[in-house]
Design brief:
By secondary structure, the chain is of the alpha+beta class. The chain contains 7 helices and 12 strands. It has helices at about 5-20, 35-55, 95-100, 170-185, 195-205, 220-230, 255-265, and strands at about 65, 85-90, 105-110, 115-125, 130-135, 140, 145, 155-160, 190, 210-215, 235, 250-255. The strands form 2 sheets. It has a 7-stranded mixed β-sheet with strand order 1-2-3-4-5-6-7, with helices on both faces. A 5-stranded mixed β-sheet has the order 9-8-10-12-11, with helices on both faces.
């Protein structure tokens, strides 16, 4: 296992890859058929992955790359049987990119011993780069992240997501409806934004109080999850049990926000 990784150089390479997509943003027509939509998604993912590998392999050779494959539920239930590997959601929010919307990011996470160890979430449009190193805190650039200190749920912002690509639970729709209703009853503001990693990084940055998603989506969570956790956020499953890799739900937030949700009319998601 490599222990001599220059994380700051990795961060700059992720930034470089993100900026590659800026000149073409909103230049190509929005696809109008399922085939053209999927072709654009595949093109973006391939271009991003190749660019990351070309830049990172020379400075961190010997580390494997694992396809995040967010459409494969089984691969998301346990870490890969490798001591150290890169896992990247090459463009989180690629749908936003294709649809000419903000909210697309380049996400990269280094898994060591089955745990997220280092993570980067880069938002090229805002030129904001969030990163975290296990046990050493989370940062926006060089500024250490801190959770916000809100205590009144009427002024908290909660975000809700759902596992649109997997739907591994036969009751996913009912659970999603209950999750959304629970948030509406507990918090003053509820939103759905799209890019999972960025929303979790926003929890760490104090911009979002609570993130909730039901159904399995491990690979979409991991980069932002480490950033939120290193900033001090609480990490649970939706029923308040400790979250572990493969848990089919995620609840992340400030202590007051998580407590508000878990002590409200919890739908036992």
């Amino acid at each position: 296992m490599r222990t001599d990784i220059d994380y700051q150089r990795i961060i700059e390479k992720v930034r470089d890859v993100g900026t590659l997509f800026l000149p073409d943003f909103r230049k190509k027509a929005i696809p109008q058929t399922p085939d053209s939509f999927m072709a654009d998604l595949e093109s973006i993912e391939k271009r991003s992955l190749n660019a990351l590998q070309d830049r990172i392999n020379p400075i961190a050779s010997g580390i494997a790359w694992i396809d995040d494959n967010e459409f494969d539920g089984e691969s998301q239930r346990t870490p890969a049987p490798i001591t150290q590997y890169w896992l990247c959601d090459t463009m989180d929010g690629a749908v936003q990119y294709i649809q000419h919307l903000a909210g697309w990011t380049i996400n990269l996470v280094l898994i060591q011993q089955g745990r997220p160890h280092f993570a980067v979430v880069y938002d090229p449009l805002q030129d904001e780069l969030f990163w975290a190193l296990e046990g050493q805190g989370a940062y926006l650039g060089q500024t250490k992240l801190e959770l916000n200190r809100k205590t009144d749920p009427l002024h908290m912002l909660a975000v809700w997501e759902y596992g649109h690509q997997l739907k591994t639970d036969a009751h996913w729709q009912t659970k999603s409806e209950k999750a959304f209703s629970a948030l509406l009853g507990a918090f003053g503001v509820v939103r759905n934004y799209g890019p999972h990693g960025l929303q979790l990084a926003y929890v760490g940055a104090g911009r979002i109080d609570l993130f909730l998603q039901v159904d399995l989506d491990t690979h979409n969570w991991l980069a932002g999850l480490l950033i939120a956790q290193e900033a001090g956020a609480l990490i649970f499953s939706s029923d308040g049990k400790p979250w572990t890799w493969g848990t089919p739900s995620l609840l992340v937030g400030t202590p007051p926000a998580v407590n508000t949700f878990l002590t409200s009319t919890n739908p036992q998601l």
